[in-house]
Write a structure and sequence with these properties.
seven-stranded parallel sheet; 16% helix; alpha/beta; nine-stranded mixed sheet
Length: 423
Amino acid sequence: MIKKEMIAMLLAGGQGSRLGVLTSKVAKPAVAFGGKYRIIDFPLSNCINSGVDTVGVLTQYQPLRLNTHIGIGIPWDLDRNIGGVTVLPPYEKSSNSEWYTGTANAIYQNLEYMESFNPEYVLILSGDHIYKMDYEVMLDFHKARGAEVTIAVMPVPIEEASRFGIMIADENKRITEFEEKPEHPRSNLASMGIYIFNWKTLKEALIAKADQPALDFGKHVIPYCHAKGAPLYAYEFTGYWKDVGTLSSYWEANMELIDIVPEFNLYEEYWKIYTKSEIQPPQYIADDSVVERSIIGEGTDVYGKVYNSVIGCGVTIGKGTVVRDSIIMNQTQIGDGCEVYKAIIAENVQIGNNVKLGVGEEEENDTAPHIYNHGIVTIGEKSVIPDGISVGKNSVIFGVTSAADYKDSYLAGGKTLIKAGEE
């Protein structure tokens, strides 16, 4: 019988709707980040760096790119005969085919997978946060406290606490109460959505609560364990942790990578972030080009000027083009004489010559101001923008557009241009 001390279950099914057009064709954990990574690389690298060599990745929404990226887990050294990485999509049962309806329901549908490793502990992770964490230290805490459930928590400003599940713990860090998104929070310890369960405790709770619609950890499983009197503990994490769930937080987290002393360091020897690397030629920086405080991916050709930006792999930036404070993802081509200011441009976009992005005053977005804000111009993947177009702030473009889509070659600030067939 195989026996693994701790296995990880990584929830990567999220649509990430607050990332707007960036996730309309791709799951949030597969969105590019930091020039050469994808968001899921961070929890996967944490696993292998923490000595957790068995990871089930639960996919659901638009899983294709995620599946191709993970493959058999070679970049993370997770191509094992026993354990390793396994992609676990929802599968059709003989009775009825069932989507994962909640975070815990997804885990419940994979009881057999977990059972096959006969683990002592199960680590539950979410696939859409940027952080480095040693899960082994958390496991040591779990064992030392004799916990059945340990929840990783992080202090947040009290005024933001109502957005999170909040834990109230005693001086030994034992959780006495918790509130899901409380209106008047009584503590600032927010759950990070990272849990260690004793396998027996988890299994019992999932089976007991299986018939709950949209079975969820915060709403059902943890309250059940607490009501049964299982010892629950809060493990406080003090490192860098970023939920890149909105366009502005995604933009910010990328920009923090290029600080002179980045708060989140991709260059540390002892805690490497692994990813699947395409075979790319080196970068090419032309003699009259300028690059300042930027990350430039492999295979990228820069003929223009790039300031404070994160540029992916296989990108071309044309002559006389100036890019500032922007994120440009893999394989995007930008023509000559363009001005790109504070834009997020997804993968495989074609931008013509003399295009200006991010001009004029800020206007509120006309379709989804809660998504498209902070003055950022967002361009969805495989979009095409013809020559000579100017685009205002807080606007969004998705699809193959032509000159006829722009009145007087202009898309005003806050406007949404999504071509049919893209949503």
